[in-house]
Every structure is written in C-alpha cells, then in structure tokens.
Amino acid sequence: MENNNFWIEIRYQGEAHEVTLDSATTTVAELISVLQQAKDENGNPLFDMPQTDITGGRRDYFLGRIVDDDKQLFNPVRGGVEQTLEDYNVQMGETIFVIQGYVPGNQ
Question: How far apart are the first and last CA of the chain?
Fold first, then answer.
C-alpha cells in the first residue's frame, strides 16, 4: 500500500496537527521519532516531546486511538516484529493520540 498523500491527525497536550507520511507502512516507532523531531514553519518544535525529563531520565511516548469508546494502545513491537500503522488498520485522516509514558524509577 504505497500512498504519498497518507495523512493523519495527531493530538497531544490539547494540540492537533495534520501529519503527512510516506504511507501507512510507517512503523509506530518511526512515527514517534518523527513527531519528536517535527518543526513548525518557524523552526520551533511542533510538539513538546522531550526525550528526557528534568532529571535526565528517559521519557517514553505511545500512540493510540479511540474507536467506539474503546481505547486502543499501539505497541511498537509485537512478537518481536515492529508494528506499522497499517498493522493497526489506521486509515488516512484518522485521529491518533500521543500518550506520554514514564519509565519505572524515573518519575
């Protein structure tokens, strides 16, 4: 499934932005990395997603969605295989949420 116009809406901390990807075969891990590095037209971070907290501890981010009041969390790896948006049947234009997680011991 190759579609150069594949886009989704990303919501995080009350903000929503349309993000265009090469295709739905983008992995969950790749998308999180892209979002952490995304800049607006002024060169400022699009989302406030630091990789570490103020103590230097690692921060994790997850993706998910709500379907018929059911919350679904996307695992980046399942059974040793990297998961793609296509694996979660993400459709163009769908809203995906970024959820900030914490690594145990770094809270």
Answer: 40
65 exposure class (CB count in 10 Å sphere: 0-12, 13-18, 19+): middle
Q: What confidence tens digit (pLDDT) does each residue in 22-63 have? A: 899 999 999 999 999 999 899 999 998 888 778 888 888 999
User: Residue length, the chain?
Assistant: 107
**Percentage of the chain surpassing pLDDT 70?**
91
Dihedral class, residue 26 (left if φ above 0, else alpha if ψ from -120 to 50, else beta): beta
Question: Could you tell me where the beta strands, DSSP code E, fall in 13-91?
Answer: 15-21, 59-67, 70-74, 77-78, 81-82
87 secondary structure, DSSP code: G
